[in-house]
Amino acid sequence: MDALELLDLIQMGESSKVQFKVRVNNANSIGAEMVAFSNTKGGLIIVGVDDKTGEINGLSFEELQATNELLANSASNNVNAPIYIYTETVKVEEENVVVAHIAEGTSKPHMDNNGIIWVKNGSDKRKVVAKEEIARLLQSSGNLFADETIVNGTTVNDIDEVIFRKFILRKHEKSIDELGLPISELLSNMGLVKGGNLTLGGLLLFGKNPQTYKPTFTVHCVAFKGYDVSESSYRSKKEPFEGNLKEVYEKTLAFIVQNLHETQTDPNFNSQGQLEIPIETIIELLVNALVHRDYFINSSIKVFIFDNRIELISPGRLPNTLTIENIKSGISVIRNPILYSNVPYLLPFQGVGSGIRRAYSKYSDLELINDTERELFISVIKRPE
Length: 385
What we know:
Elements: H1 3-12, E1 18-21, H2 27-39, E2 43-47, H3 61-77, E3 79-80, E4 85-92, E5 95-102, E6 111-112, E7 118-121, E8 124-127, H4 131-140, H5 161-172, H6 176-179, H7 183-189, E9 193-194, E10 197-198, H8 200-206, E11 219-224, E12 234-237, H9 245-258, E13 262-263, E14 274-275, H10 279-292, E15 301-305, E16 309-315, H11 324-328, H12 337-342, H13 355-362, E17 366-371, E18 376-382
Parallel strand pairs: 1-2, 11-15
Antiparallel strand pairs: 2-5, 3-6, 4-5, 7-8, 9-10, 11-12, 13-14, 15-16, 16-18, 17-18
Helix pairs in contact: 2-3, 9-10, 10-13
């Protein structure tokens, strides 16, 4: 980092990614700040700048040595699990300033010496105490998956045996009777049952009525008149769709198709009409929302149809370091491994990172939005004029 870059950062003030310190002399305190950055998106701690005025108050040679040593020791000894930092000294207006680069953590949740989990909250930090938020931090580092968690109160009897038998036949090309294993053992081998309870993946894939236990895991569909969700009138509105993933998928797809136009592609009156948006694109984005959403967030998927676009709003931003550019190029991160490995035998899903690319190949007038502030992933399909 050069002096001009640092001056620009200082002039913009503190944020979720930048914090100023005149001096650091407490390893526990600075360790907590590092934890907050590491549990969020990473950032910079700039030592030698007044956090109230933004004035530069440079460090002496002895202070530079002591500061670098304290920062390094704190990152190793006052943070659990230890984190990696990179420090550099930048000369600004003849004053020496230390810049510590803290990367986003790979072993979340990181804690301070007192066992407290911190995350950034604007330019400040806050404690994390909610179990759901801790679970999502574990998820983001690949240490916990929502669809592998146990759903208390469920049993094997909550499985729709007819659907499960059809699934096994399609996956193994043998019936359950031919495999010679009891249903309970098959479910356990597939990670769909643990300790007598269904996992969330088992419930979503094969449950008779998953919403009995997880009422928010539905799809809410509305077709509005106009261009905005604030419109008071609508063309079609349904109660949130319930059922297992296959049932919810089929109901949602039918709703979307029913609320789109067909265009005549042949002058012959008896010719088959063509949907205004290729059905392949709709299917890819809908299945993507169902399989890759964040099931640690207790919220429904929303499908809003406006006069000029369709919005598929899925709970959860893109996981880890995944970006819009990544997924457009076919890179994927598996958020729900049980769903990912079993859905191809229930829904039109290939699971090789090609879904978004295929959606674009059929219809390019799309916009993908990774809304990190609201924890949403939004697929916008523009409707033809």
